[in-house]
Amino acid sequence: MKRVSISDRLVYVLPPRSARASFLGCSGLVVRDARTAIIDGNMGPDETPAFLEAEKPDVCVVSHFHVDHSRWAHEAAQVPGVVLHVPRAELRYLADMDHFVERCGLPDEDMARSWRTWLTQGAGLRPVPDAVPLAPGDVLDLGATRIDVVDAKGHSPGHQAYWIAKDRILFCVDIGVDGFGPWYGWRDADLLEYVRSIWRLVELDARLLVTSHGGLIEKDVRTVLLGCLDVMRGRETVIAHDLDEGLDVETITARGHIYGDTSRFPPPLDAAYRLWEENMVREHVRIISTGGIDAVDH
Ligand SMILES: [Fe+2]
Prior knowledge:
The chain is α/β, with parallel strands linked by helices and 298 residues long. The chain has eleven helices and 13 strands.
């Protein structure tokens, strides 16, 4: 893993490349103040235990249930005296594996079973029944540093961002300022709420953007965040064109506008990518029927 100092109190932490490549890690933030907090400190299965041992956090925060952000939750929960926070809207996802898998909306039993097996045996996910809920509007008071919890739902039902107003630093988590752009592939994602969340983050007027998969962004933060909407508009344009041609969701999905030809992935990954493509197409079709991305009130 790698540590990048942002200020005398803030450290950006990045997992090793192997964890990033296999959906087993995400970048996070360490805040060293009167109390030490770690937000999304999932440095992957190999490095998270030593990382937690070194930092000895008082507070750990999981931003949303997606496994690259949540698989370290049970390790964080074992730190002596720690308070583990998870989003209020996703408390049950992280306490109950059956609920986690069910909410992903997999189309058949076989796929649900192999997903559950990978989550538990491949990723090492364990339920955390005693986590403390954190909700938009709550404040993490760590001493001199106050972190506001900002609603960034849409990517997932409880997806959160974290705002340090005095420094104008925004940890935007998975809002989508990386190469792929915004992701809304599980059944519980909501494109309409996602658009509102992007605008909510834009309006904070951050100076520095901390991201889960796209590094630190200091230049043109507003433009970079608005770029998430541009990616969505691009997808909307091609999907709207297909709808005008009379195509249905299944046929549009098969065209692979978002992921390309999913048969390049080995089974069972190919089925997962097709499912994510279909869910994202379905969300666009839903939004297009009410005027599209630019008609969403915010
Ligand atoms: Fe995510």
